[in-house]
Amino acid sequence: MIYTYYIIPLYHISKKYNLPADIIYYIYSYIINIHTQMIINKWYSYVSIHNTNLCYIANKINLLQGYTFTGDIILYYDLYNINFYKTLYICTKYIKPNISSKSWWNNFIQNGYNGMIFIDYDDSSNYHIINNNFRLLNKLYNYFN
């Protein structure tokens, strides 16, 4: 560990100069607390990058409301939207499933799959965007299932 770099010299100094145990304890606690705080800050940064920021970006995408063939209300993402593709690309690149909410991401993925109902299969001009969105949705799905 990083703090052993400081603890071993502390041990030698305390032994050489016969420092009281309470002073050694306070110095030791100070060293441990500083490095513990550094570890907590790094972990918080890691979680922020790999989960919190991704959820924030994903929530920026417009969630649309439509109707199924049976008349039920359905929420979906527009698969023609290039911003949806960019968001999916960023999410698949940086997501860490072990620190992410499986149910939240499964709901996000389901809303993406719901957009398939509203694809115009006769319009081939945006086929590459739809294909890429669908490929990235499948990649996200495989991360969590």
Task: Write a concise keyword list for the protein shown above.
single chain, 145 residues, mainly alpha, 5 helices, 2 strands, 67% helix
Short structural summary:
The protein has helices at 4-17, 21-59, 82-94, 102-114, 127-144, and strands spanning 64-67, 73-76. The chain is mostly helical.
Main beta sheet: strand number and arrangement? 2 strands, antiparallel
Shape annotation: rod-shaped
Overall helicity: 55-70%
Tell me which oligomeric state these chains represent.
single chain
Q: From N to C, what is the helix and strand string?
A: HHEEHHH
Question: What are the low-pLDDT stretches, counting only 5+ consecutive residues below 50?
Answer: none
* Cα distance spanning the termini: 35 Å
What class would the helix/strand composition place it in?
mainly alpha
Number of strands: 2
Query: Largest sheet, order of strands side by side?
Result: 1-2
Report the C-alpha radius of gyration, rounded.
Answer: 25 Å
pLDDT averaged residue by residue: 86
Q: What percent strand? A: 5-15%
Compute the number of helices. Answer: 5
